[in-house]
Amino acid sequence: MYTQTVALKDVRCHALHGFYPEEQLIGCIFMVDAEVTFTTDNNDSENLDKTVNYEVLNNIITIEMANTQKLLETVVKNILEKIKTKYPFIETVKVGIRKMNPPMPGQIGQSFVQLTYTRS
Length: 120
Prior knowledge:
By secondary structure, the chain is an alpha+beta fold. Helix content is 28%, strand content 38%. The chain has one domain (2-118): GTP Cyclohydrolase I, domain 2, CATH 3.30.1130.10. The chain has helices at 21-26, 54-65, 72-86; strands spanning 2-15, 28-40, 92-100, 110-118. A four-stranded antiparallel sheet has the order 1-2-3-4. α2 runs antiparallel to α3. The longest helix is centred in the middle third of the chain and has 15 residues, at 72-86. The mean pLDDT is 93.
């Protein structure tokens, strides 16, 4: 058996997430990472139904990033839950969102929220 990892890194999205009304008007650039692991026997490595399709991961990310929320924690959880639902065989899911240049005093490169799920 093998443990396989499928991931998307640095999916760039402009979205309107933010607690303050002005954040939901002007938006911000976000970078999203999603990583899943699962066990496979690797005997059918050319079968897309036996793996996690990163095109589907991208679609989940894109849809959830377009659904404005006040907190990134909500967005991260929604992405993670959709991935778990689509791929019930996965063992771990890690989703992180970075808000680039968050609008606050000082020079801040990014804020970051991450959530990890491990099947028990």
